[in-house]
Amino acid sequence: MKKSAAILLFLLMNIVSFSQEICDNGIDDDFDGLIDLQDTVDCFCAEAKPDSILSSLIPNPSFEQRTCCPNGASQLNCAVNWVQASGATSDYFNTCGFITIGTFPAPPLPLPNGNGYVGFFNNFSTLNLPYKEYVGTCLTDTTKIGKNYQIEFFLANSFGNLTTEMAIYGTTNCANLPFGNLLPTASAFCPTTTAPLDWDLLDVDTVTCSATGWIKVSLSFTAAQNYAAIVLGGSCTNNTGSNYYYMDNLILNETALFLPSINIEDAGHYCQGNLVLKANFDSVPRFFQWYKDSIAIAGATDSTYSVPNGGLGNYQLLATYDTSCVLTQVYRLDTTIITFDLDSAGTCPVGIQTGEIIARNTSSGTSPYEYQLDNSAFVTDTGFSSLTAGLYTMTVQDSNGCQTSQTVIVESFPEPEASFLVDSVCLGFTSNFIDQSSVTTGSITNWQWALPGNPTIPNPTFVSPAAGDLPITLTVTSDSGCVDDTTILAVVHALPVPSFSFSPQELYTFNPDVCFSNQSTGATSYSWDFDFNGTNGRSTLVNPCTVRFPENNEKIYQVVLTAENEFGCIDSISGAISILDEFLLYIPSAFSPNADGKNDEFRIFSAGVDKFSIKIFNNWGELMFETEESDQFWDGKHKGELVPVGIYPYRAVLKGENGKVKEVLGHLSVVR
Known about the structure:
- The protein is an all-beta fold.
- Strands 1, 14, 15, 17, 18 and 19 form a 6-stranded antiparallel β-sheet that branches. A 5-stranded antiparallel β-sheet has the order 2-5-10-7-8, with no helix packed on it. It has a 5-stranded antiparallel β-sheet with strand order 3-4-11-6-9, with no helix packed on it.
């Protein structure tokens, strides 16, 4: 909290009257509502004593007052009351953020006064013509014709020649700022050579800078006019090479006022409760009086003053000499305002909380710094994480215990809503998933499907290997990193199971009639394809019976049964039916001609037979029975008598309707 204090000098008038303000008793003596130094009518200087920190006709003489913190070259406009005096742009620096240009050597430390200063070129050889930069300002009061004036300022070299000519120029009209233009001509860079010729050279002097520190430069002049504005920089004489200089603390006033100085220094720190203000002077005053907010502090008449707790305000010290008094410039005491930037990152409303707050660019206090979020303990970490959404207070504390707080919001990101559509399908068919997810602001950037292969596209497809209600989960992530998921049943309908049988199993061209028995399950409708054309070649009956296949056509037919369920799912099965071009013959192996009504006759059964003959013999080859009629039977008698029990060989000859001839030999048993 070190603050140098420039002084104002004034001589207190000692006019004795009934309403005269006494300037050091803390009382409004003349009842005008103004106490002590607030009453500038009664308490003012008639004669000034000079000081190295004298009040200046130049406003903002050490560039402390600013409207912005410079962050690059050519920003003199950030310094209050200062302007670029010419088309060639000078530079403003401040320890708040910008202290030099690129690789230019920075100025020596400490700075002459405060945190601000300016920089300027006095020639830039790369342009191959004189190039000069100036700073300029309107004065707080015009100079008076015939008065002697002096300007003192500090100068330091960045690079180039240590020796240079410094000059001050004056004009009677502030409207003449800036002068010149950006034209690349030598005459455009000097006030006294640039049309219109509104500027006077007030003084010029050759100075040599120190290689390691600042030097004080003094120029003086007698005012030939009432000058309202000044320009300061190099002379119109070309300075060879490229030369860059820093300048600070410009004090312009009447020469008679530059007398011994007094200012306020400090020790300790207000935030630690041990701040002491101390007078720094080169001539010993007769007595001192301390003021707070322009009102005398009772009993504060020493060269030092210990600031009590709660003593924030503006302090001045009045030092009285034999014939004059000196009042220091205001020493402004406020608790250190620590500057810092806050970055915050939002969080999702549900799930893991990811909110963050980070402090950056902490300055203006005394390091090291500690950080507190809301009412938590102070820590050295600058960042806080895993925060929920809401309003937080970040407090930064420096090593002196000074604190500054800011509020910051951890934003609540919008939560996405996972949703999708899926069609019901039959087993073996493709399920199409259509994303319907949404988020109020931002967008969905990631999809994660609980499907084989873990697809990450919005609209995947899938063929299920099994039927059923399959729970499918979709997890979506928004561009803010928030996640939501949903699970929906993807319905895969089972296929019907077609099956059939038929009878008879042996089929012949002479009788191709078939009955089909539908043994399908899970179906509601059927379609039969019997593999032949015609009205009977297809059917939608459940159990088609009888189906007549084409006659006299030996063929293997592929019968297809297609089954469909209530969901439209279809499956089919095929089976082969053989129609044989053969005849059918059945000859019994035994019979019992005993008149008991059971198996008393020997009968032959045939189908598809065109011609037929059979002969039955006994064991001695004697013919027992013969016939050429397939429907004729033998009653077991020969010549009217029942034949004995025994084995009787036979020979049958058949000609089928297909023209084929077949001989059948066998034995017949006669039993009782």
